[in-house]
Amino acid sequence: MTSETTFEANTDTLFTPFKAGSLELNHRVVMAPLTRSRTGSDRVPTDLMREYYEQRSSAAMIISEATIISPTGAGYAFTPGIYNQAQIDGWKNITGAVQANGAKMISQLWHCGRISHPDLQPNGETPVAPSASIPGEASGQAFTEAGWQPFVEPRALTEDDIKALISDFRQAAANAKAAGFDGIEIHSANGYLLNQFLSDDVNKRTDSYGGSIENRARLLFEVLDAVSEIWPLDKIGVRVSPWNTFLEATLSDNGALYEYVITKLNEKGIAYLSVVELANDDLNRPKDKPDLPESINAFVRQYFKGPILTAGGFKAETAAAEIALGNTDMVAFGQPYIANPDLVERFKKGADLNTPDFDTFYGGDAKGYTDYPFLK
User: Fold this and answer.
1) Residue 107's beta-bridge partner residues?
2) What is the pLDDT of residue 278?
3) How many helices (H) and strands (E) does the chain have?
4) Cα torsion 31, 274, 235, 39: sign
5) Which of 21, 48, 5, 4 is CA-nearest to residue 228?
């Protein structure tokens, strides 16, 4: 048996069709959401972004880079929005190009919460959060058009603010439909606003959105209910990141909270649950946590019986193995897709992968964005 035959035998599962909710996928290789900071100050998706996504549209499904639901949701310079007509039109140009090549495209809806800065907010306002809890040094600094700046203490959202926030998510979901997306994904992971509400280290509220597990999870499910007025549940994904320490949205009751959240999401019948796996991630994998499972995917599978999409440092072989174990159904690739627009073809042929240029990940122009070589 040749090495090439062994490779194909080990990875065939990646290239079988799959149905996530009502989303019919050609195979199981997905492009992960990747912030690249390539818009202008207006946050309107560009023709260069269209070229970038179109190049990668041999993916079964592309999850858009995290996309801001409202002006107050911004946390980084030059990231796209989906809250005005120009942005809708910009995304429509992209979704059409992607779908013409057979891929599905999902809009990941994003509010950054406390990971922001007045320079990124309308009229220089203070960023909002569950509580007036400033990010620590481990979270780094805010990326603004003037460069990196220290975080400021955020303003705690009032209950009226929360109602408006939910309305913003609903409107962004409607805008995503107008922009031609095939579905939406609620970003409740990686230390951003919905994840901040889940975290008892960040969320110190004493009202119905703080304290108990049910209260801290309330906003996520109210957002899900709101966007499901626009999209059927079988076209909505949710992203979670159990035990992830990124941006310090940590929990004292991680296992119990995510058992509750994932079980309830399972009951909702969403299209898929997107999971950030930490098995291959030393940077964001917390140390000295007695309840930390060896596999986040296996933990999630105990409570979620629908389609699972996982991401987190996978290679073709390890992705296929994770599917074979039953821990996931689809695998999203991040950095490999940055450097390899034809990643599916390279996986199928067992070809070498281009090396990503880390210096061009965020901001800039076509260099390190649309100029990576395809296979000959």
Assistant:
1) 184
2) 86
3) 11, 15
4) negative
5) 21
Range 181-194 burial, b when 16+ CB lie within 10 A, else e: bbbbbbbbbbbbbb
User: Which ranges of the chain have pLDDT less than 50?
Assistant: 1-9
| Tokens coding 150 | 């220290």
Cα–Cα distance, 135 to 139 (Å, whole number):
6
* 192 is annotated as an active-site residue: yes
**Contact yes or no for 76/127 (Cβ under 8 A):** no
- Bridge partners of 240? 275
- Catalytic site residue from 192, 258, 337, 372: 192
How many Å apart are CA 267 and CA 248, to the nearest integer? 29
Q: Would you state the pLDDT for residue 10?
A: 75
Tokens of 54: 């179109």
46 burial type by CB count under 10 A (0-12 exposed, 13-18 middle, 19+ buried): middle
- Cβ pair 352, 339 in contact under 8 A: no
Q: b/e for 200-214, b at 16 or more Cβ within 10 A?
A: bebbebeeebbeebe
Q: If you count them, how many residues does the chain have?
A: 376
Structure token pair of residue 10: 């080990």
Alpha-carbon distance 239 to 267, whole Å? 16
The verdict on pTM exceeding 0.85 is yes
290 Cβ neighbours under 8 A, 6+ residues apart:
none
